[in-house]
Amino acid sequence: MDIVMVFLLLSTVTPFLFIKLKKLPLAILQSVLLVGMWMYYFQAVFNVAPPTLSPLWLIFYAGLFVSQIGWIMFIIYVVKTQEEKLQKSYQ
Known about the structure:
Low-confidence stretches: none
Structural class: mainly alpha
Shape: elongated
Number of strands: 0
Largest sheet: none
Radius of gyration: 16 Å
Mean pLDDT: 92
Number of helices: 3
Strand content: under 5%
Distance between the termini: 50 Å
């Protein structure tokens, strides 16, 4: 369950990354998915995990997918801005 908690915490930060990247629709989508992700987590921890392909299961994995897309977009953004700063410093 530790790795699930790490993914949940990274997913919780993701809407702020989307806002930084000026992708407001994705930030709203990830915020909605976060509610389902945390519901899935608490249900799995304190009760029986929802069955495969149930709505909470789909929301959880969709949230993970969108979160990973957000982190990849953020990494690309950081690399591009650092390259631009580096090029300006050499000119």
